[in-house]
Design brief:
Blueprint: H1 7-16, E1 20-23, E2 34-40, E3 43-48, E4 54-57, H2 59-68, H3 104-110, E5 114-117, H4 125-128, E6 134-136, H5 144-158, H6 162-183, E7 189-195, E8 198-202, H7 210-214, E9 231-233, H8 235-241, E10 245-250, H9 251-255, H10 262-265, H11 269-272, H12 275-278, E11 282-284, H13 287-292, H14 298-314
Parallel strand pairs: 4-5, 5-6, 7-10, 10-11
Antiparallel strand pairs: 1-2, 2-3, 7-8, 8-9
Helix pairs in contact: 2-5, 5-6, 6-14
Length: 315
């Protein structure tokens, strides 16, 4: 089935979603001269509508663009997670520096119309704005899902795919609601990261708050310090906390660093004595979608929701 809408109808629908289209300079003659005003991590920003050259320095933004079917012309020089393997051809998708250190010479040479950057590139946003308008997809840990939806709407608006963006949001919302119903029936859980043989835990309000606030996993009563790198703990801490569910993120696996795998590190008498281990409720999370993609795009969210849903079905 095909359908069409008038320009006035399209403008009306965009307005309902907090998106404003305008004509650059007031005398433009085509779509290429239009701009769109959207909300991002820095507030409100006016960006080119349907830009020709888009450079992306954020993997979750690539996840969103892939889900929408948009095009990109430059990506980070980064080992890509399996979910984004379609962007692995460096001849088709030139590398424009790392997430932390953009290559300004390559960016300048590509003459971008738009640059999309996020948390890991946050200190470089002002420098990037010298080359093109920047869409800031940085997330606030206190409003994670709300701001993921904001980013989907903003990127969809820029590409002229607002309705497709809303469809993705509705799909994620439905999956989240189903998962919350299952999570509410579970005993308390704990998010654990392993990195270089060390352990750290994350609770509500942390960078991995989505497990608790969005997905609905009950948290332990113990207060956990909120910091970027989590609260450092020992195996004794895990036994004392004694969660019924243990959600493990192997950072070494996420970044491709050699080291003892999380399951090997945790296979000891102290962890084996916890309720989670005894009841086979230790979940080794998808490291790339939780860590590299920050659980911040439709593909990552749906992958992680499915893994947790499957785990609760077995529990």
């Amino acid at each position: 089935m095909t359908f069409s809408v008038t320009r006035r109808e399209a403008m009306g629908r965009l307005g309902q979603w907090g998106v404003v289209l305008s004509m650059a300079g007031g005398a433009a003659t085509g779509w290429a001269a239009q701009t769109v005003t959207v909300k991002d991590g820095s507030g409100e920003v006016r960006l080119p509508f349907k830009p020709r050259t888009v450079l992306v320095l954020d993997l979750s933004a690539l996840d969103i663009i892939q889900a929408l079917g948009g095009n990109v012309q430059g990506i980070p020089n980064q080992k890509l997670p399996p979910l984004l393997e379609a962007y692995s051809d460096s001849a088709r998708y030139p590398h424009i520096g790392s997430l932390f250190e953009p290559d300004y010479e390559k960016i300048k040479a590509l003459k971008p119309d738009l640059i999309i950057a996020g948390n890991r590139s946050l200190p470089k946003l002002d420098a990037l704005r010298k080359f093109a308008p920047v869409l800031d997809v940085t997330l606030d840990n206190q409003r994670q899902l709300e701001e993921v939806y904001r980013n989907i709407r903003a990127i969809a608006a820029v590409y002229g795919l607002a309705e497709k963006g809303e469809a993705e949001i509705q799909s994620v919302d439905k999956a989240v609601a189903a998962l919350r119903t299952k999570a509410a029936r579970q005993g308390p859980g704990l998010f654990l990261m392993t990195s270089g043989g060390k352990l750290s835990v994350y609770g509500p309000g942390s960078r991995f708050d989505m497990l608790y606030t969005v997905f609905g996993m009950p948290a332990l009563p113990q207060k956990i310090d909120v910091s970027k790198h989590g609260q450092a703990v020992s195996f004794e801490y895990l036994l004392k906390a004694n969660p019924e569910w243990l959600f493990v993120l192997d950072r070494d696996a996420a970044i491709g660093r050699e080291g003892d795998a999380a399951h090997k590190l945790l296979d000891n008498k102290l962890v084996q004595a916890t309720k989670a281990w005894r009841n086979k409720q230790v979940v080794y999370l998808n490291a790339s979608t939780w860590y590299l993609l920050s659980n911040a795009g439709p593909g990552a969210l749906k992958t992680n929701i499915q893994q947790l849903s499957d785990a609760f079905a077995r529990g």
